[in-house]
């Protein structure tokens, strides 16, 4: 174990043996540094780890304390059971109506699709942008079009290699966020009227993409723990002859499900037997709470059918809107589509991120971000257990920053959304995640914002509103 892990285990043992009791104050970082001879960063890392486990809590300008007695968490929801039917998608109006107020600063952002911007290294990124502008080669604004900046693509390829996947930088297309990458991949393999298999529930931007391209959706039964049901998927492949399958195998939005390595391999092999490309949205894969990054489906892709898409928007630089696609056998089609739509992502921002990655700051940032998100998830789950109505079920993702809340069947999530918004709280109601507007008693909540008394009170308010609607 690393030194901070050893220190964390020592404190954890003191808590489990009741040498430290709920509410007790832990030795300060300065005290641990002086008495134990460890660096302040080691103490902080140990305390962040314990906070992520829900064993201690931080109090601003006061220090760290043993967490109060934990409430029993709500049970997890069961797998979805969608209708076996091809559906014409019509959700955009509802999505825009729901998300219209999410970005307002005075609204509690439980309905947001992004974590707090305060969790990102904005000052370092600003310096990187300034440096990249000073040394910008004017010709790069021409040569880096289409595929994107060569150094950024090389840095991304190196990260694939660390995850056990050999990818040529020439097969990486830089895009304006992952959403453009996903849309380009979808356009490359479908035509209007085609059918696409998706999860149930599914990210609303996926549904909007299908609607815009006049594609039909077939929803697959999906578990909040380990993703789509492969037996159900195989039946749908035979029955509907889809042109593509759009999935999130790592910390799916909105459920937070994570496919096991064995299931990912079986998924890729199943789709390869049917010749169906997998469009994979993997924007949350780096936000894992375990020891290592979940494996990539791309590592099992010998047929070139996996179109892997990701971005830095959820992990490092939301406002940069820089993503990429590794589209296998469809790479050239995606590159051409990029050229004929938006041409290029901003060159100076690409250069800045390439420099940031090369300097090694990204992994240090990610380690802290993961610990912070894990701690915030623990706090939100406890708050839901205390404040939400009996019969509520909640997912417990192993990464990302969303929980899926299934409330008693009599509660209308859209009505709850409206009453919550009137109280200054945004939520994402279940119907926006379904082509058939199902999940009417479910909501998605974002725990990617630093916990505060305001957020605690907002959860209590949501619980009261839900209880009144039950």
From TrEMBL:
Tree of life domain: Bacteria
Keyword set includes 4Fe-4S: no
GO MF term set: transaminase activity
InterPro entries referenced in this protein's UniProt entry, alphabetically: Aminotransferase_I/II_large, HTH_trans_reg/aminotransferase, PyrdxlP-dep_Trfase, PyrdxlP-dep_Trfase_major, PyrdxlP-dep_Trfase_small, Tscrpt_reg_HTH_GntR, WH-like_DNA-bd_sf, WH_DNA-bd_sf
Keywords, ordered alphabetically: Aminotransferase, DNA-binding, Pyridoxal phosphate, Transcription, Transcription regulation, Transferase
Chain ranges of the HTH gntR-type domain: 1-69
Pfam family, one: GntR
CDD domains: AAT_like, WHTH_GntR
PANTHER family, per database record: HTH-TYPE TRANSCRIPTIONAL REGULATORY PROTEIN GABR, TRANSCRIPTIONAL REGULATORY PROTEIN
Family note: In the C-terminal section; belongs to the class-I pyridoxal-phosphate-dependent aminotransferase family.
Protein name: PLP-dependent aminotransferase family protein
């Amino acid at each position: 174990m690393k030194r901070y892990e050893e220190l964390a285990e020592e404190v954890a043992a003191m808590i489990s043996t009741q040498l430290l009791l709920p509410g007790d104050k832990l030795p300060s970082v300065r005290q641990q540094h002086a008495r134990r001879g460890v660096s302040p960063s080691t103490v902080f890392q140990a305390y962040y780890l314990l906070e992520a486990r829900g064993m201690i809590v931080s109090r601003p300008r006061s220090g760290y304390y043993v967490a109060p007695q934990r409430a029993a968490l709500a049970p997890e929801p069961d797998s979805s059971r969608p209708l076996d039917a091809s559906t014409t998608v019509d959700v955009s109006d509802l999505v825009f109506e729901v998300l219209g107020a999410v970005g307002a600063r005075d609204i509690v952002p439980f309905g947001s699709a992004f974590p707090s911007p305060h969790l990102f290294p904005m000052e370092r990124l600003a310096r990187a942008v300034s440096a990249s502008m000073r040394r910008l080669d004017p010709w790069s604004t021409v040569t880096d079009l289409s595929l994107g900046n060569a150094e950024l693509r090389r840095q991304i390829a190196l990260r694939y290699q660390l995850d056990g996947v050999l990818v040529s930088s020439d097969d990486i297309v830089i895009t304006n966020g992952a959403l453009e990458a996903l849309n380009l991949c979808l356009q490359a393999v479908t035509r209007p009227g085609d059918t696409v298999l998706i999860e149930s529930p599914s990210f609303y931007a996926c549904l909007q993409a299908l609607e815009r391209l006049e594609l039909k959706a077939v929803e697959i039964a999906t578990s909040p723990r380990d993703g789509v049901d492969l037996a159900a998927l195989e039946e749908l492949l035979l029955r509907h002859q889809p042109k593509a399958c759009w999935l999130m195998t790592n910390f799916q939005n909105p459920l937070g499900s994570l496919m096991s390595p064995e299931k990912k391999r079986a998924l890729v092999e199943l789709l390869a037997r049917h010749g169906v490309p997998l469009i994979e949205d993997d924007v949350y894969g780096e936000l894992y709470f375990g020891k290592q990054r979940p494996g990539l489906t791309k590592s099992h892709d010998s047929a070139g059918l996996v179109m892997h898409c990701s971005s830095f928007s959820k992990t490092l630089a939301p406002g940069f809107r820089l993503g990429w696609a590794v589209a296998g056998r469809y790479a050239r089609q995606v590159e051409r589509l990029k050229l004929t739509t938006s041409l290029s992502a901003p060159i100076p921002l690409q250069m800045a991120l390439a420099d940031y990655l090369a300097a090694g700051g990204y992994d240090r940032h990610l380690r802290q971000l993961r610990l912070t998100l894990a701690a915030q998830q623990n706090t939100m789950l406890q708050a839901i257990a205390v404040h939400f109505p009996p019969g509520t079920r909640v997912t417990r993702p192993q990464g990302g920053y969303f929980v899926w809340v299934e409330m008693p069947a009599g509660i209308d999530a859209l009505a709850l959304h409206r009453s919550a918004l009137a109280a200054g709280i945004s939520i994402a109601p279940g119907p926006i995640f379904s082509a058939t507007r199902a999940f009417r008693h479910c909501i998605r909540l974002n725990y990617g914002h630093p916990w505060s008394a305001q957020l605690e009170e907002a959860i209590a308010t949501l619980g009261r509103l839900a209880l009144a609607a039950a």
